[in-house]
């Protein structure tokens, strides 16, 4: 009886693959660090913004003074942030389905207060329909196009 010899299965030697992969990685890292990326000179077109017309806009205003008191100006009233969700739901019940919320913030309002208002908008389902605006530094308020909010008449204490 003749026994067969065990043959080795044909295969590709894998011991060199790790070395090759490592060399490719080092080469890639070296070339990307050396490559200098120069900024492109682009000229963006001038665009005139058009007014967003909503049949029933809900305007929320917050200045730094109101943010410190945790209040907002909503429908000609100063209300605490804790009451904003209820007021939004009340107004949304009277409003059409495509109501927009305009969140007007002074540029010096702390981010934490803006985040609090956005959380209320998220809880009430308005976050996808919000327009956030702020005046850039050095710009003047245009009395014909913007609603003025009497920040100086803000109540001195909390209304809670």
- Largest pleated sheet: 5 strands, mixed
Helix percentage: 25-40%
Which segments are poorly predicted (pLDDT under 50) over 5 or more consecutive residues?
142-160
Radius of gyration: 31 Å
Q: What distance separates the N and C termini?
A: 102 Å
How large is the count of helical segments? 4
Task: Provide a brief overview of the structure.
The protein has 160 residues and is an alpha/beta fold. Helix content is 33%, strand content 14%. The protein has a domain of 79 residues.
Question: Can you give a write-up of this model?
Answer:
With about 160 residues, this protein is α/β, with parallel strands linked by helices. The protein has a domain at about 60-135. Helix 4 (about 110-125) links the parallel strand 4 and strand 5. The protein has a five-stranded mixed beta sheet. The chain has four helices and five strands, in the order H-E-H-E-E-H-E-H-E. Residues about 140-160 have low confidence and may be disordered.
């Amino acid at each position: 009886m003749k026994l067969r010899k065990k043959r080795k299965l044909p295969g590709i030697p894998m011991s060199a693959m790790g070395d090759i992969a490592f060399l490719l990685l080092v080469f890639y890292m070296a070339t990307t660090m050396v490559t200098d990326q120069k900024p492109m000179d682009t000229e963006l077109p001038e665009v005139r913004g058009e007014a967003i017309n909503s049949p029933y806009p809900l305007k929320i205003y917050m200045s730094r003074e109101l943010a410190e008191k945790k209040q907002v100006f909503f429908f000609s009233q100063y209300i605490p942030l804790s009451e904003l969700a209820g007021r939004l739901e009340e107004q949304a019940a009277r409003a059409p389905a495509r109501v927009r919320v305009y969140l007007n913030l002074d540029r010096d309002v702390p981010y934490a207060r803006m985040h609090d208002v956005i959380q209320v908008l998220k809880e009430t389902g308005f976050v996808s329909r919000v327009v956030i605006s702020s005046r850039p530094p050095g710009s003047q308020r245009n009395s014909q196009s913007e609603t003025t909010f009497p920040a100086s008449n803000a109540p001195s204490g909390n209304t809670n």
